[in-house]
Amino acid sequence: MAITALKVATWNVNSLNVRLAHLLRWVQTDPVDIICLQETKLVDENFPVEALTDAGYRSLFSGQKAYNGVAILLRQRTVGEADDIRTRLPGIDDEQRRLLAATVDGIRVVCAYFPNGQAVGSDKYSYKLKWIASLHEWLRAELQRYRQLVIAGDFNIAPEARDVHDPQAWEGQVLFSEPERAAFRGLLGLGLKDGFRLFDQPGRMFTWWDYRNLAFRRKQGLRIDHILLSQELAASCRSCSIQAEMRALEQPSDHAPVVATLELASGASAGD
DNA sequence: ATGGCCCGTAGAACGGGA
């Protein structure tokens, strides 16, 4: 029985058109096996399939014009074909493309772009909570079907005070309101583990920094992008880190990637 | 300082993001 290392990442690119070069450079130096992308902002006809094929990745995507849009990239050498692909969340029937799920080598991979919510009490905030409730129920069923499940994405929720640069200022604000935090805890209650918190981490570790106010340089961020793992995958997780250097590049996304490394026992691994 | 930036759609500002 061989041990296979599998790297899973999530990154909100804030327009894949603008960030494609960053993505290609990243995977050239660090060939992550499974990459969940959010805010691609591309209709499917414009998805850069060819550039990613040349880079060694199969692309799954669900896009719309101007907003939202999610994708899963699968490294051809190390990951098998995708199966049971889903783009819709039961109970949410609109044009917003925020979910993409696929089964790869027996692992259920869920890429999620949670609604932002705009402001507590707004219609968009209500939509956010409704969307998460629908996701919760769907994930409950998925976890019955799959022992190995990972949900990676932009959750737009900072789970705890230590995930916020200034918790007092952010308390009760969108991204750090109690109903949102409770919804996040609800997902953990399904048996999912926050990959980043499986390990001791330094303080002030964030995944998003506002473009304004020199927020990145001032370390004024939030940890809102997450990789949650089913119990079985959590047991196989060896590290989980934030690629903050990506936020320091020229013309960066305002989000940094999060990467988890799993060590899986497997009988066969294509290409290795 | 009741904001500052970035992206897409525009074809000028404006909605949306977080």
DSSP summary: helix tally: 6
Query: How much β-strand is present in the residues?
Result: 25-35%
Radius of gyration: 17 Å
Indicate the percent of residues in helices: 10-25%
Compute the separation of the termini in Å: 13 Å
Largest sheet: 6 strands, mixed
Poorly predicted spans:
none
Order of helices and strands: EHEHEEEEEHEHHEEEEHEE
SS-derived structural category: alpha+beta
Q: What is the residue-mean pLDDT, rounded to a whole number?
A: 96
Order of strands across the main sheet? 3-4-2-1-14-13
Question: How would you describe this protein?
Answer:
Helix content is 24%, strand content 29%. The chain is α+β, with helices and mostly antiparallel strands and 272 residues long. Strand 6 (99-104) and strand 7 form a beta hairpin. The protein is globular. The two termini are 13 Å apart. The model has no long low-confidence stretch (mean pLDDT 96). The structure holds one DNA strand of 18 nucleotides.
